[in-house]
Amino acid sequence: METRVAVISIIIEDPASVQAMNDILHTYAEYIIGRMGIPYRSRGISIISVAVDAPMNIINTLSGKIGKLPGVSAKAAYSK
After folding, report:
1. In terms of C-beta density within 10 A (0-12 exposed, 13-18 middle, 19 or more buried), how is residue 59 classed?
2. Which of 38, 55, 65, 80 is most deeply packed, by most CB within 10 A?
3. What gap in Å lies between CA 75 and CA 58, rounded to an integer?
4. Which of 50, 21, 15, 25 lies closest to 36, judged by CA?
5. Given this model, what pLDDT does residue 80 score?
Protein backbone atom coordinates (compact mmCIF):
# COMPACT_ATOMS: atom_id res chain seq x y z
CA MET A 1 0.00 0.00 0.00
CA GLU A 2 1.27 3.46 -0.91
CA THR A 3 2.21 5.72 1.98
CA ARG A 4 2.38 9.48 2.30
CA VAL A 5 4.39 11.70 4.59
CA ALA A 6 2.25 14.07 6.63
CA VAL A 7 2.39 16.32 9.66
CA ILE A 8 -0.46 16.28 12.13
CA SER A 9 -0.71 19.55 14.04
CA ILE A 10 -2.40 19.25 17.41
CA ILE A 11 -3.50 21.92 19.88
CA ILE A 12 -4.53 20.72 23.32
CA GLU A 13 -6.62 23.11 25.40
CA ASP A 14 -7.87 20.51 27.91
CA PRO A 15 -5.00 18.88 29.84
CA ALA A 16 -7.33 16.03 30.82
CA SER A 17 -7.14 14.80 27.18
CA VAL A 18 -3.34 14.43 27.12
CA GLN A 19 -3.28 10.80 28.31
CA ALA A 20 -5.94 9.73 25.81
CA MET A 21 -4.02 11.46 23.00
CA ASN A 22 -0.79 9.73 24.03
CA ASP A 23 -2.61 6.39 24.08
CA ILE A 24 -3.84 6.97 20.52
CA LEU A 25 -0.35 7.95 19.34
CA HIS A 26 1.08 4.83 20.99
CA THR A 27 -1.39 2.69 19.03
CA TYR A 28 -0.07 4.19 15.76
CA ALA A 29 3.61 4.28 16.82
CA GLU A 30 4.77 2.20 13.85
CA TYR A 31 3.83 5.06 11.50
CA ILE A 32 5.31 7.92 13.55
CA ILE A 33 8.57 9.41 12.29
CA GLY A 34 8.92 11.98 15.08
CA ARG A 35 7.08 14.22 17.47
CA MET A 36 7.66 17.71 18.87
CA GLY A 37 5.68 19.22 21.72
CA ILE A 38 5.71 22.79 22.94
CA PRO A 39 3.96 23.72 26.19
CA TYR A 40 2.63 27.27 25.91
CA ARG A 41 2.24 27.87 29.63
CA SER A 42 1.06 31.48 29.50
CA ARG A 43 -1.93 30.36 27.40
CA GLY A 44 -2.41 27.03 29.18
CA ILE A 45 -2.21 25.00 25.96
CA SER A 46 0.15 22.52 24.34
CA ILE A 47 1.14 22.56 20.67
CA ILE A 48 2.26 19.25 19.18
CA SER A 49 3.49 18.28 15.71
CA VAL A 50 3.60 14.61 14.75
CA ALA A 51 5.35 13.56 11.52
CA VAL A 52 4.03 10.31 10.05
CA ASP A 53 4.66 8.06 7.05
CA ALA A 54 1.50 6.04 6.56
CA PRO A 55 -1.31 5.17 4.14
CA MET A 56 -3.86 7.97 3.70
CA ASN A 57 -6.59 6.08 5.56
CA ILE A 58 -4.31 5.66 8.61
CA ILE A 59 -3.39 9.36 8.63
CA ASN A 60 -7.05 10.35 8.37
CA THR A 61 -8.08 7.92 11.10
CA LEU A 62 -5.31 9.04 13.44
CA SER A 63 -6.04 12.74 12.91
CA GLY A 64 -9.78 12.13 13.31
CA LYS A 65 -9.45 10.17 16.55
CA ILE A 66 -7.23 12.84 18.07
CA GLY A 67 -9.49 15.66 16.89
CA LYS A 68 -12.53 14.05 18.56
CA LEU A 69 -10.96 14.28 22.01
CA PRO A 70 -12.45 17.00 24.26
CA GLY A 71 -10.50 20.25 24.06
CA VAL A 72 -8.25 19.00 21.24
CA SER A 73 -7.92 20.27 17.65
CA ALA A 74 -6.03 18.33 14.98
CA LYS A 75 -5.27 19.01 11.34
CA ALA A 76 -3.13 17.07 8.86
CA ALA A 77 -0.94 18.50 6.09
CA TYR A 78 0.21 16.02 3.43
CA SER A 79 3.22 15.76 1.14
CA LYS A 80 2.56 15.60 -2.59
Report:
1. buried
2. 65
3. 14
4. 50
5. 83
Residue 69 per-residue DSSP state: S
d(CA 54, CA 40): 29
Task: Give the tens place of pLDDT for each residue, 8-46.
Answer: 999 999 999 999 999 999 999 999 999 999 999 999 999
Q: What are phi and psi of 64, to 5 degrees?
A: -65, -45
Query: What whole-number distance in Å separates Cα of residue 58 and Cα of residue 71?
Result: 22
Beta strands 4-12 and 45-54: pairing type? antiparallel
Query: pTM higher than 0.85 for the full model?
Result: yes
Looking at residue 19, its pLDDT comes to: 96
Q: How many domains does the chain have?
A: 1
- Distance from C-alpha of 7 to C-alpha of 32, rounded to nearest angstrom: 10
> What is the CATH number for 51?
3.30.70.1150
Q: Would you mind telling me the total number of residues written for the chain in this entry?
A: 80
